[in-house]
Amino acid sequence: MNHNTPLSPRPLSHLSEVHRRVLTTAQLRAHGVPAAEVNEQCRPDGAWQQLLPGVVLLHSGPPTGEERLHAVLTYAARERTAGVPVQPGAEEPHRPTYAETMVTGLAALALYGFTSAGSLTSLDRIDVLVPRMRRLRSTGCARILRTPALPAARQVKGVPVAPVPRAVADAVAGLSDANAVRRLLTEAVRGAHCEPAAVVRELNDAKLLSRPHVVDAVDSLLAEGRAIAEDRLYRMVSEYGLPDPVWNVDLRLPGGPHLGGLDAYWPEQAVAVELDTRAPRQDEDALWSEYARKREHLERLGITVVHITPRKLRDGLEQQAAVVRTALMAAADRDPAAYVVVLPR
Question: What is the pLDDT of residues 160-176, one digit of tens each?
């Protein structure tokens, strides 16, 4: 067998339109196009152009946002597929796989539909995440971001994209404008893309919470997130026919110490709801200990505390209503709670 025999040319018809326009030089060779012809076609006055090292756009005009996106992913993944023709799969016959890479930052947020991220065409750079040990460099419109462990990618418009919290953190890392940071964080929460705690966790992991303009935006984000969670809690009580509680109260023992604030409280049944809106910063453990101490103290007094996270309210409003209803119904079978003073918070 002659190992130097070139691969037989394969037609481009099995590829989708954008993937027929963006190919690696290795893929072109597999389709029967020799290196000399690629070089000739990519001359300044040629019909093709080299968008990135080893990645060719098969027309001479300005690339579209989609073409730039696929060119960057192809560049970042090409080491894993070099010399191998793109093979159509049984389920995705027109879509190549991009090994060990995913879009992140503003480009990812644009794919998710963030208006504050701009369009793919307007971005100077497209950020891609790759494993830390990959030997790649940023060049042209491709900015390489290395990470010790890749998050689980989501498929958006046919390409692998970092989860929203990670994409937001990678975008914020490159922004110095406080208003731009605040717009991104606000849209992430208002658009129900993710919960504030998830964004703050990624910002903390990226060591971005030492930047004053990021801290200010995070404070606004947490206030926004709490307001949204409170609104969902009000809606839960109304839509699922729960009895009206007293809202946003402080509890005290008669003539005694302050017991803590609660988001909702049913005095007759001695049932309380507390929203867990902790931000995962360095003081998370201390704050959780405070939550736990308060809950234990209230339960020793006979008060049932239902802990609800904003995410549970977003994803399972009916389920959380059932949890609260069960706690209210169980009150009749419990010993009476200690008398406490209820004050507006």
Answer: 999 999 999 999 999 99
